Amino acid sequence: MGRPATQILRKKLEANARKRGIELEINLQGVNGDTTTHAMKRLPQIVRKKADFVFIFFGANDASRYFSVTESEYAKNLSVMIEQLDENKVILISPPYHNDTLDINNRSNTLICRYRATMKKVGQLYDKNVIDLYGAMIASQNPNQYLQDDGLHFSARGYDLLSELMLERIMN
């Protein structure tokens, strides 16, 4: 079994930042399989960290049929996170593309796009630009290159794309 996703992303962020001459202290609080509802329980400890930037990256699991996070609950949870984490530091990341040909029973791009739209609405409400990860992935001729063979989790290219998008936002 491979390294947890947060460790892989941290390594990619650090490596890509160093290529640009930037040193970052990265403290990822993501938990594999989390939804916004799960994250709400950890929110007080995340608020206490007082980070310079906070990336909120949820939606794929919220949109999953395994969890019962409605779009309105998702929007409410995102709003609470933004308000408690200091609106000026928050950067939203849309849910990613999903390979529907491999698993349409659990989640689908139709559902993911609804949660993506919800995140964009919350972003507009708080005057936040959303990193449209889904849009960046589908802009490729082969968006599946960003995913592992399960059609859901990121490949090395997927982590590269995500880390580059995050670094671009930090630098702007």
Automatic annotation (TrEMBL):
The name this protein goes by in its record: Lipase/acylhydrolase
MF term (GO), any: hydrolase activity
PANTHER family referenced in this protein's UniProt entry, alphabetically: ISOAMYL ACETATE-HYDROLYZING ESTERASE 1, ISOAMYL ACETATE-HYDROLYZING ESTERASE 1 HOMOLOG
Pfam families on file: Lipase_GDSL_2 (PF13472)
Residue ranges of every copy of the SGNH hydrolase-type esterase domain listed in the record: 17-161
InterPro entries xrefs: Iah1-like, SGNH_hydro, SGNH_hydro_sf
SUPFAM superfamilies from the UniProt entry: SGNH hydrolase
Protein keywords: Hydrolase
Keyword hit for Acetylation: no
Species: Lactococcus fujiensis JCM 16395
Keyword Protein biosynthesis (UniProt): no
